[in-house]
Design goal:
alpha/beta, about 35% helix, about 15% strand, globular, 13 helices
Amino acid sequence: MIKRLVKAFLPHQSRYYRDRLLRRVNERRLAACLEEVGVAAGRIVYLQSAFGSLGYYPDGPRRFLRMLQRIVGPAGTIVMPSFPFGGAMEDFVATRPVFDARSTPSRVGLLPEVARLLPGALRSCHPTHPVVAVGAAAGDIVANHERCDSPQGEGSPFAKVVAADALVLRLDTPAYPLCHRLQECVPWPNLFLDEPVALECIDLHGRAHRVTTRVYRKRIPFVMFYPVAAGAAPVAGNIIDFPVVFPAREAALGSEGGKAALLETLRDYRARLAPRAEWRTARYNDAVIDAFSARESMAFAEHEARRTIHAFQSHYALASLESGLEQQRIVI
């Protein structure tokens, strides 16, 4: 009886009330945090976010995006992944989806789904890895994605944000947002399945395209072998932590048995990259926000990744990776 009464008068989860009472977003303070990490007028910003981590935000993501647009101004551009799936590309393409840039929902967070509905927002035409862009450079960034033979290859929006030296902005989300772009540049062992797929797409003008794209393998490409000590065997880790390990990931890595040496390697990468890529970090409520140069982070990561893959080439044998993950000898 008491539980029914509580649900009737307090229908939300406890986090809802905590956020409203204790973690209400002050937009002026949040804007100052974004400017502190490098968001500025005229900048192209590639954003990956966990929006709910900010706290209680009146009017929600639409208001946040309007604020971000004000900071970058009319000469700036906001770009976000707008993928129509969560999980593995390999599983998604097996369903033979039809992508419509005008109506297919984004499945990678709240902000991209709201952004694609903004006035003036443009979305690239790709069956698995479209982006949404708003601002001065949006048209150039989304153009001709359907002509690329892989999701993040040459000519893709991801290649363009790197070439334009976009500011990579992570809002309490730990993954390196351009890790697949990095892998396509290297090129990464076992990144793609043997055969591409051809999928139907409809662009923003209602035109139909049959897009042929290479397909990322499931799980395998996320394994990266890191050097931990001279002459020692490398340690398997997750590519999402390379080259700029997210501050919130440090505690998790430090608490896992046998990952302390890996954490030191990741911190070393970040320390060497930080001044070059102008890495900056700030905190708002419980959320960690950081940002850095897309071009400089990619140049550094590509150099280091090529070097380590060459050094540990035998560890990337496909059969060995498959059995290691299956038997949990490789844990990332």
